[in-house]
Amino acid sequence: VEDRNDNSPIFNVATLQGSVREDASPGTPVTTVVATDRDDPTGLDQYGFVSYKLATSPEDPPAPGGQRRFAISESGVITVVGNLDVETAPSVKVVIQAKDGMVNSPGNQVTATATIQISDANNRAPVFEGRPYNAKQGELLPLRSTVYSISASDADIDPANKAVTFTITAGDTGGVFDIHSNFQGGVTQGDITLEKPLDYEKGPKQFILTVNAKNELATNSDDTLYQVDTTVIIDVLDENEPPVFINQPYNGAVTENQGPEPNIARVRAQDYDFGGNQTVTYAIVSTEGWFSINEEGSISSIAPVDREHPAVNQTSSIYTLVVSSTDNSTSTANVAIRINDKNDNAPEPDGPWTVTICEVPPEPRVTTINIKDKDEPKNGPPFTVTIDDASGLWVLENENPMARSVATLTKSFDVNQQSKYELPIIMSDGPSPPEPRLTSTATLTINICRCNDKGELNCETMVPIAGAGFPVALLIAIIAAILILLIIVLAVVAYRRRQQAGLEKEILLDDDDVRENLQAYHDEGGGEEDNDGYDISALQAPPPNSVKPKVIDVRPLGGAQPESRRPIQPDTDIGNYIGDAKQQADNDPTAPPFDSLLVFDYEGQGSDAGSLSSINSGTTDASQDYDYLNNWGPRFKKLADMYGGGEIPFP
Length: 651
Known about the structure:
With about 650 residues, this protein is mainly beta.
């Protein structure tokens, strides 16, 4: 079969993409374009052979001046031939033509567009903005403050090639300044800060700084072609500074507890601002009130000084006096004043002087008491220490110049007799002559407690008595008085409760209790005048639904209902009348076992003396005469009108 050129080349799309840095030199290969043809490339006409060239159409975007940036070989290799600029053309499109067959023979032709991405390179130097740079700053500017700020930009795209780093390369004598780079929003700002104090009087009055700017993160950061320098001028301005103390350090001396002493020390301050023509004044800053200072800086004592004061260093006896100097601003200085000690403090306890021991001490030694003296060592130890103890139970032993051991001469104590000992300790110091010896007294408190077999203290059984201070007899008397008072109170309470219980047993009756009408009398007979002493209505049964008197401590029979008592009509036979009432009450299950309303006597019938009741005593006309009531006064007038001069009306 003889091959014919009946197939056109087909581009491999993946080979139509490429990338290159913008700083690539001419001849740098970018990518290789590949197209295939199905015809036989080995035949005489080579119909399957593919060759490449650029189409006549321009690149997109066109290069400046109509020049081409890229070229392609017959084998399909695209190379750089012109200048690349990612800032103006981040990508370039070129049209590739592929033809099959021999090179100069006609063949099938196809075209495709290859896209080449241009990557950024650091090929532009930073550009300073806002020049020239001139700054003026006062000499009192605080450290780490910003003196001046500059800025620079870079036309590169990649942040690594765009960020600028500033460096002070010249003019910073003594390292007074530093510069900090801050890249933000495409612009880098450089802040020049103060690292050492400015001094108009003694230092440079002007700094001329050279600042370099480069792309520190770029791969070619050391290439000076892409670096730039600028100049920053900083003028130092004179300001009013505090006066400066000269001829330091300052020292002085004064004796403790002495009167005023002049000229114990002298200070001097100088102000160099504005030609040094300002007036300097001095003052005492310390608040103890011991010293004064005059306008010349001479220091004098004006009051007795106490070496033991907390403001004085007790080890060195140095008092630090603070003085100030002022023009329009203030500075301070320290004056070290030594306080010569006087023996004005007696020895005293150093720490607590209280100890607790067992009733039977395991050893004679009880405790160690520490002694101190606020004065200097030359006016302190050695101490003379004695114990003021008449009992002879305690002794002191030397331990060291600042302490004594306390021991007991007895093998056991009796906590019931005395549980606390308060021992006066007399202490004297040993000053160097001619200082006087000082003496003081302090109390050592020794508590006595019982101990178990392990030597553990048990102080709950301690009995405070004489010497510790409390007599046993008085304690017993107080306890006995409390017990007697308690017994009396209990007896009174018991008596009151018995009285209350007796009252509660009484029947709660109404104010109209009929028993008030039952009166005891001893008159035999008596006529009609004694009828008000015996009210027969007391024998009447109470009306239904009436409230019956109750006894507090007696309960009715459980479940029983009160029996309705029928009214009993008056009867001439009082015996039958009372018997019926009693029988009716006995048959009532809710009635109390003793009802005082039903307790009464009947004298009976058939007596030779006759009836003593006044019920039937009024049987004659004379006994019905009530005219004498008129003689009894106005209080009986109504009764006289009712009964006088006629028959007595009966209901």
